[in-house]
């Protein structure tokens, strides 16, 4: 787990989203600072995933602004990408690369020093209890195993803010506990997490703050 560029605050100010005149997200505001573990809950159709996409600069809001320390958030900006690490939807991956190969690729892409690569990769595999899967291809993993591998890819890259969409999905009870521990560790290290969660008990146990999105029509 590599530290990213530190930030002071991420601010969503009155953002909305609509497609062809249909509202996908009502006006929403949120401020995130270092050391916060913010869980977003709410019914299906409340705009949670849409909000995460806007928050990471993957999608432009119809109205309102997203700024990181006063700079507009755009996922194409490399500085922004060294602060915000998203996991929103499945990672495509490569059929002919093993789990370990994927992590090596991520580590080198983000400028990890070669001498310490093996140590970093082994550490993240062991922390998520997926070391035994290092030589498997993604197609050989169960849905829960793949979820943890995708989480390992995001955790390995530099970041100060994780943005995750339902990372608990497809994980059994034990692995949800593991997820909770890992996210708390990130926050204890002065990083931040914003994530959508449908497991209310997990959210209450893990979050420093819960934001509930209402259903909208």
UniProtKB/TrEMBL annotation:
SMART domains: AAA. The keyword Transport applies. GO terms for cellular component: plasma membrane. It is a peripheral membrane protein. It comes from the Bacteria. It is found in: Cell membrane. InterPro entries: AAA+_ATPase, ABC_transporter-like_ATP-bd, ABC_transporter-like_CS, ABC_transporter_ATP-binding, P-loop_NTPase. GO terms for biological process: response to antibiotic. SUPFAM superfamilies: P-loop containing nucleoside triphosphate hydrolases. This is ABC-type multidrug transport system ATPase subunit. Belongs to the ABC transporter superfamily. It holds the Pfam family ABC_tran. Keywords: Antibiotic resistance, ATP-binding, Nucleotide-binding, Transport. GO terms for molecular function: ATP binding; ATP hydrolysis activity. Residues 10-214 form the ABC transporter domain.
């Amino acid at each position: 787990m590599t530290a990213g560029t530190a930030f002071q605050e991420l601010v969503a100010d009155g953002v909305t989203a609509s497609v062809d005149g249909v509202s996908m997200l009502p006006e929403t505001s949120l401020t995130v600072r270092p050391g916060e573990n913010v869980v977003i809950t709410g019914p299906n159709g409340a705009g949670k995933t849409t909000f995460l996409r806007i928050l990471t600069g993957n999608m432009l809001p119809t109205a309102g602004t997203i700024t990181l320390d006063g700079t507009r958030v755009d996922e194409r900006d490399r500085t922004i990408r060294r602060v915000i690490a998203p996991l929103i939807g499945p990672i495509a991956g490569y059929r002919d690369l093993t789990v370990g190969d994927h992590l090596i690729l991520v580590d080198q892409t983000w400028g990890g020093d070669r001498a310490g690569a093996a140590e970093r990769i082994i550490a993240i595999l062991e922390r998520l209890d997926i070391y035994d899967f290092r030589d498997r291809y993604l197609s050989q993993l169960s849905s829960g195993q793949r979820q943890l591998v995708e989480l390992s890819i995001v955790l390995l890259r530099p970041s100060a803010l994780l943005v995750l969409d339902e990372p608990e999905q497809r994980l059994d009870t034990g692995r949800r506990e593991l997820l909770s521990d890992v996210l708390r560790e990130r926050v204890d290290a002065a990083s931040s997490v914003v994530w959508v969660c449908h497991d209310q008990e997990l959210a209450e146990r893990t979050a420093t703050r819960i934001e509930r999105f209402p259903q909208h029509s």
